[in-house]
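Input for the complex:
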Amino acid sequence: MNQFFLHHSQSKELHGFPHILEFAIRKNSTIQLNSLSLTTADCIRIYYIMEGKFEWIIQDRHNILYPGDVAVILPGQTFQGENDFLDIGTLFWIHIKVDSIESNMQMILGKWSGLSESESLTIGRILHLSQMPVLVRMKPILSIFQLIHTEIFQQQIGFTTRVNQLIDELLILIARQSTLQNNLQRDFPQAFIKLEQELRKNLAHQWTVEEMAALVGLGTTAFTERVKSYTGFSPLNYLINIRISEAIKLLRKDNVKVTAIALDTGFYSSQHFSTTFKKLTGYTPGEFRKRDSLKD
Amino acid sequence: MECIITIELGTNGVRLFAFDLKGNVLNSTKASYPTFHSEPDYSEQDPEQIFITMLYVLKNFIIESIYSKKYKVHSICFIASMHSLLAVDVHGAPLGNVITWADNRGKKEALGLKNSQMGKKLYEATGTPIHPMSPLLKILWLKKNDPDRFTQTYKFLTLKSYILQQLTGEYVIDYSLASATGLLNIHTMKWEGQALDYAGITVDRLPELCSVFTPGKLRKEYQTSLGLSASTRIMIGSSDGCMATLGAGVWGEDKATITIEDSGAVRVVGKQVLRDEKKRFFNYLLTENHYISGGPTNSGGVIFEWFANQFGEFKGPFDLEYTIESLIHEASNVVTGSEGLLFLPYLLGERAPLWNPNARGSYFGININHERKHFIRATIEGILYEIYSIGKMVEEHRSITSLSVNGSFAAIPFCSQLIADVFNKPVSTINKANSAGLGAFLLTATDMGIYRNLDEAAKSVAFYETFHPRHNDHKIYTQYYQLFERLSLKLEDEFEMIANLQQKR
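Predicted:
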């Protein structure tokens, strides 16, 4: 394919797509100093290597990319060439704007996307957690890029919808692949403990089974079955166990209010917390706190 | 009708069994909790998570399996992994996580004590090998490296003591589990003053010592929430190792038990301890009349699971059970001795008999004709040679004529047969998957007067299947074992060199 460069502020081809900031192929045949110095991404940048060998530093980590490899740089991540310049070779890229990034983890795409809010949040979470900016041997990405290219330049009926669908597909493919590269789907205990650490880091979040399953790279049915046979609990009951264990720790610190504990550990309300706590332990949170502080 | 519930607080999770008073299993259930490795040598668990998991499972178990069948719970007996340490403050609140037996942070402390005169004295007095697993060394580590936590500590508990304190309000520890802390004198059955001095603590920092038969009483709130009567006895019980030995029905000086789960051990029961100049054995107490002695290994089923995860063929995502089954099947198609391929299983360092945390794994003797299937079988044979090396060490002191095996790895029929062949002794398995649970039942039933004493209780264990040694295979294994032993000893320097290189990465 030939070189081209589309930029949202200059190219009329991108008029219908305010979320596509850049879309381009570049054949770089000479080295120019400072052609790729340190930047912080404010959108999702996806690069596909077509020819050559590229040495990049993404989020302080060195990566070497060969043809067929894909780099994904997320909003807020830093990016630069190993020696501040762009290596010789050919690459294909797209920059996609995201609507809001509340914290590092919360990625919400615009109205253009057919992904539900919870799907796009989960994809964002997976990409952030996988810490794998480079995915190897990703030929299917090239085909999606080529299809997007065809749609944008030929503008046949329905092209706007098709392009947006293709971008969704691109994100889904990248999320799935990064889960797969991250865990080989062999050692369940190992995959599960990674998930548990994520749950604990963000206990106040209203986790759904879909989100948890996606982080392990399974469908919800298979995930629920695995978790049950491994832990003895359904995923949501397992989560309640962690929530109550954390709550007990907080209850033992006298200065934390019960309502705050309830919300910090992911219960809807202090009422919901009290009922669950009492059902499991036999004590209300207040009684439990009194029991241990009365001693001595 | 009455029943007995046994609760085993294991390394990976909690396992519950309900027995009728004749020893029949009415039902069982299990649930898991994670181990956290926040740093390479650390191995910790969340005490609250374990407590809540245990409580949750117990409650469901009672509702679904006990009441629905119109049983009444007479006693609940506890079993726990050895060597755990949990510091709690004056309110009983945990200061940090439980430090498990697999935690190696006290490496330096262990090395410092091991070859000293004091080390010899403490080993002889307490029966616990000088190793980072020992709570003695964990406390010493805390004192040196986490002085705040050390000074804030009101009591140093084991996980089981903490769980019992939550349920009953009392700080207690049984002699049996206490004998694995490195702090109890196993001859006088009192806390050992020299060990306490060495760890820098006084006796009031420890829970109260009591016999394995000591009953406790549930707090009222748990009586209500679990639906148990005030008369339900909470038996303190013992350790997993001691209970698995009792439950394996091995109760004569000429018998030994082999347990292989993730890790493993070879154990014997006796009225005397095993004395060993090289300090290779543990000698733990079950009661004042019974010592459980032997050697532990890190290289059990966990090593084979590692192999399966790396080199097995997976039918579906995470389907380890299927993979292990097909690997065992492939291994059975290879001749005895894997055509000269030998495996040293020390992926996690090794305890008995090498007691070398730097030991590492190795395949030896690979030639161009070896295929994947040879590696599968060699891996299993290597794990069992290691078990045999502990057995040989025990046989320097006792003459063993028969074996009883249990644990998820050893109970695979292919492995049970291989153990019989390697040891050249008949190997029996028991009909119940879990001998620790059965041991706790026998303990409780003895306390209730169903058996006159533990000897009679142990003899009631019915064997399910016996594997007889095949003498030709034994001859082949003996030749390979000699080489296995030579390599394990010869590589000591190289183990250290490679461990150092690995540390630097």
